[in-house]
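Notebook entry, structure prediction.
Reason for the run: the old model in the group folder had no record of what sequence produced it. Starting over properly, with the input documented here first.
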Amino acid sequence: VSFSTPYFTDGLSVMVRSDSKLRDVSDLKGKKLLAFINSTGFDYARKQELTTAIVTEIPLRYLDDAWRMVEDRVVDAFINDASYLNSFSRKNKLLRTWKTRLTDESWGIAVRKGNVGLLKKIDAGLEKLTTGGEVEKIFEKHGVPWRLGAKAHED
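New structure, fully documented this time:
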């Protein structure tokens, strides 16, 4: 597979209850951490040696229920993309997402390897959207606090 020019930079963060004392990765050791199998959050948690506390039985199709597990104290924390976590914690006073991103991950559009023509069209379209300010308008409309480019700002 080939990828387009990156159009969005996100990264992992952690969602906890607002009243949680968890503020740093080291605080997660021995806690119940929700990280989905085959996700970058799962890989990160394993690298940080948090594997003994990872809850992974929930399929990705239940991603929208994951924040409820934090809210209901089924798990102590949920590791996932910061933009996704922020979309829930901004609307729910019981939750907060760490302001610190644990990683920087650039997103691009995947195309079949060798499909250079399609890749060029996608890159041209992304260039038009980014230089024309359309992507920024979309982010602002939907309350996405992360921006384009290699380094996105913190909210």
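Summary: The longest strand covers residues 12-17.
The old model has been moved to the deprecated folder.
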